[in-house]
Fold:
Amino acid sequence: MDKIHKIQMHALSRRSFLVASGAVGVAVTFGSFDDVQSAHAAAPFQANAWVTIDGDGTVTIMSPASEMGQGAMTALPALVAEDLDADWNKVRVVQSPDDAKTYGNPQFFGLLITVGSRAIPGYYEKLRIAGAQARKILLVNAADTLKVPVEELTTEPGAVVHAKSGRKLGYGDIAKNATVPNPIPEATKADLKPIAQCRFIGKDLPRVEVPLEVNGSAKYGIDTQLPNMLYASVLHAPVQGEKPEKIDDAAAKAVKGVVQVTPLPSGVAVVGETVEATMKGKAALKVTWSTTSAARNYTTNANTAEEYRKLASDWTQKSVDMVKEGNAAGAISSAAKVLSAEYLSDHVAHVCMEPMSATVVVNGDRVEIWASNQSPSDMKEFGAQVGGTTEDKVKVNTPLLGGGFGRRTDGDEVVEAVALAKTMPGRPIKVIWSREDDIQQDMWRQFAAQRVEVGLDASGNIVGWRHRVVAQSYIARAIPAAFEKTGGKDVVSAGGGDFRYAVPNHQVDYIRAARGIEIGAWRATASGYTKFAIETILDEVAAVKGVDPLDLRLALLKDHPRALTVLQTVAEMANWKQKRPDGRALGIAYSDALNAYTAAVVEVSVDRQSGQIHVHHMWAAVDPGIAVQPKNVVAQMEGAMIFGLGAALIEQINLKNGVPQESNFTDYRVMRMSDVPPIEIKVVSTDNPPTGIGEAGVPVVAPAIANAVARLTGKRLRQLPMLPSRVQAVIKGAA
Structure:
């Protein structure tokens, strides 16, 4: 396997995974502060790596996370501004440089990466302390100017105040002559404001990037335009792992505007002067592909499902423990009654609204990259390895992302762009994937089978819980060293099986089903299907025990008040105990994946003839700890629940001999606006450390729907998506 292909197959190779409208005067800029300094007449004062202040009082704050619609570019700078005591109307937000040593996320070993709902929890303390330190530096400078002890000074938004003399200095006035003290004042947690005194944390600030999106000036990676730029379209192999063996490019080269045709490990690139020329050239290529990939033996059909099911149900198979508490096998073998169920979930695609693209220019040993990406740290690594240089000579520019969901960590398009730019030094090359490329070359969420066995005593109480997950491995591809070191654990492919329910003898294990294809991290990762299994079989336990599904959850979570609160809150929101109109029912589900306490209720009806499920209403309550921006938490939850709704009801990728059968929105359905029911969200902000929220709404949707269908029909749905044909078969007893 050649070098570039290895990088593509092992993207994220050095990552350690722990599972991750604007106000007046607020501006947003992409790039490092050096890129925007020229916009100001005088050199600004840089208090620390995060804060720079101009003489006019403009406060520039670095935002380290990729902004993909989740509001990080507002919430993270607000943390700095809070303890800096800045005037938000004078804040300017700048995307941080690709310097992981300075701007990296502490929860990802200092890497610059935005995944796993880890931006807020990872940066929360670090950014607040940075703001507090910058404030101390301003106080020291103000004390020197006013000739008063620093202890006599305090601040108000954008100014230092000396109450005794009634004098006040604006931050801009201080910045004009400020210097960084020696020694530099240090700030600690003790210097941070109490939450009750915060002006930004827990309040709702307008999103800083939204005006750009509304007026059309927002710049995404695909919008990159550079002088003398060329474009590239890539004809990719129809099956993962295959390479071009014979290329007839005569017709492609004859297309006006085509500059060159270049073989790549992943396919054949057509480089040209216009996008249209490259697409026309790509369509004219005739390529004979290799036929040696193991993926050619992979087809997602009933036989594959049965193969996975057998692995899941055979407890003698070698597996890796993800959770092991007590003796689940022993408890189940001696139980008065055992409930067992098997679950399947199909591949799903990321379908980011902005297809994959990257622009790269190579000058000697220098590589510069412009790409919507979730991990500048990884893009630097790819740029260095493919460009044949060192990471210190690679610059990564991260504009806005048109969706991410885990897909923009892999860097396939960046690898292609670097390889092409290397062949034409000094000329920027922009690689643009078509929507068909985006779907068919995606790193889909894994196909998974699960088996859950729950042992009950004579009173219906749970005495043992055994859960197995069978799926392809993300960690084996992305972080092979970590996969080996942990003995084959994969929290991305088999996580989410842990829970806070008071269940003795709890075991979750994982079997890697390597089938020749590479899969990716997808919003909420494995929790999207593991919580489906957990929450639906829990409803079966409630039915056997003869108790309300809500009451069973409340009993099992009695030692977790935060969990009880969100369950009780959502039950009140949906009037859980109230009888629904004929033909409708409510279903409930709970999740504490990613440490965000989340409960949801859905109201559904089912067309018994067609098998079509109609979701009429969705409610959710979420405790994210300190809700840094409450309205943004609501927006995140709404988006995540819609994401979960699509995966629950309609989204699927089918493969036949390794070839994906879906290629665009014509055959890969996603939720339309007309498909989305009313959604009500209540944020239960608590005094706990903030958790991530971007993925919390996904895991609860599918099980809540399935539980509602079971209350309506008496039938249990155990396969995702819950397509009408599958629902119809279950109702009629054919499956």
